[in-house]
Amino acid sequence: MSVQIAPHVVLLEKFMHTVGLVEEGHILIPNHVLYTWLVMLILIALAWVATRNVTLVPKGVQNFWEIVIGGLEEFTVSTMGENGRTVFPLLMTLFIFILFANFIGLMPGGVAPTANLNTNAAMAIVVFIFYNLVGLKMHGAKYVKQFVGPVPWLAPLILPIEILSHLARPLSLTVRLFGNIFGEELVLILFFALLPVLATLPMYFLYSLVDTIQAFIFFMLSMIYLKLAFEEAH
Amino acid sequence: MKFFKGLDRGYLDNLLRASLIGAHLVASTFIGLTVGYFLDKWLQTGPWLTMIFLFFGIAGGFTNMFREVKRIERGEKESAENRKR
Predict the structure, then answer these.
(1) What's the pLDDT tens digit per position in A72-119?
(2) A124 in the Ramachandran plot: left (φ > 0), alpha (ψ -120 to 50) or beta?
(3) With an 8 Å Cβ cutoff, are B23 and A217 in contact?
(4) Is residue A148 part of a domain?
């Protein structure tokens, strides 16, 4: 019942129905993938508009990107050191993608791609593989030293503990983002069912804050993991 | 950007790491349980690997907690010394 009067009418799903990518009443491409594509389109369009004619004195969209990217790059480098500059593109991409994906969920009729475990798991696994590769590239075989701890005879005990602890990182990254955004969508649906438009309006202020913070947390945590991978074994 | 400059970096760093501890504690326990469970299923070794890996998972979460606390403590000492100067 509440699903029918919810604001999540899903605009893109309607579009898929008219295009005809439907089999037995179900759309062939899942919703979160559709909205991921929408976010990609928005970001590509914004990037294209910003770089179409780059001027020395930025204005408009170029100004926006320069403030965001410049500010965050400075922040990354001040936390991670000069190493940060090499991994910054991935971190920035994650931040901007998650930010826009979260805000798509606030749009009436939109579904946040990050309210689905698959999207988040994909990003978290990319971060996991990336920081391990970076650590291996930086330290070579010495990277294993980070896993065995300082005392040699304790190594057989520490090694499985460390490996499990590393495996827990992508899980906690995934579940935190999923829980926050999915809960947010659910609350919006319920409030809309209670009292359409008026009840959801104050929630929008709260959730625009939450969305930004969640994107920033994902960014910061990826940064911390990369920083730990860069560090020498202690 | 003014927003990021206004924030105290040490404070923000500590806040994030502290908020990570709880999630990490739960996540590593579950990862340990899952790994042990599937190893048991694969190797047909009864409940033993599940128990051992569950213990490893819990230990991993707590190790992480102690490490974070140590790090925060060290940061506090450093900032206290900076204040004296």
Answers:
(1) 888 888 888 888 888 899 999 999 999 999 998 888 777 888 888 999
(2) alpha
(3) no
(4) yes
- Whether A165 sits inside 8 A of B64 (CB atoms) is yes
Reported ipTM: 0.74
Sorted by sequence, the CB contacts under 8 Å of residue A128 that are 6+ apart come out as A166, A169, A170, A225
Range of the domain at A43: 2-54+93-230
The per-residue pLDDT for A148 is 80
Question: What letter represents residue B37's amino acid?
Answer: Y
Are residues B24 and B75 in contact, defined by beta-carbon separation less than 8 angstroms? no
Token output for B70: 């140590």
Q: Give the span between the Cα atoms of A33 and A17, in whole angstroms.
A: 15
Question: Which of the two residues, A170 and B7, has the higher pLDDT score?
Answer: A170
Q: Which are the contacts of A187, defined by CB distance < 8 A and separation ≥ 6?
A: A203
Give me A199's structure tokens.
């009840």
Amino acid in position A207: Y
Residue B16 contacts A where some CB pair is shorter than 8 Å: yes
Q: Is residue A150 part of a domain?
A: yes
pLDDT digits (tens, 9 = 90+) for A44-78: 998 888 888 777 777 777 888 888 888 888 888 88
| A176 contacts on B by Cβ (under 8 Å) | 23
Q: How far apart are the first and last CA of chain A?
A: 57
Tokens of A220: 């910061």
Token pair, residue A151, equals: 């005392």
pLDDT above 70 for A7: no
Please count the structural domains in chain A: 1
- % of chain B with per-residue pLDDT over 70: 86
Is A64 within the bounds of a domain?
A: no
Of A67, A74, A168, the CB nearest to B24: A168
Q: Report yes or no on A62 lying in a domain.
A: no
Rounded to whole angstroms, the Cα distance separating A72 from A77 reads 9
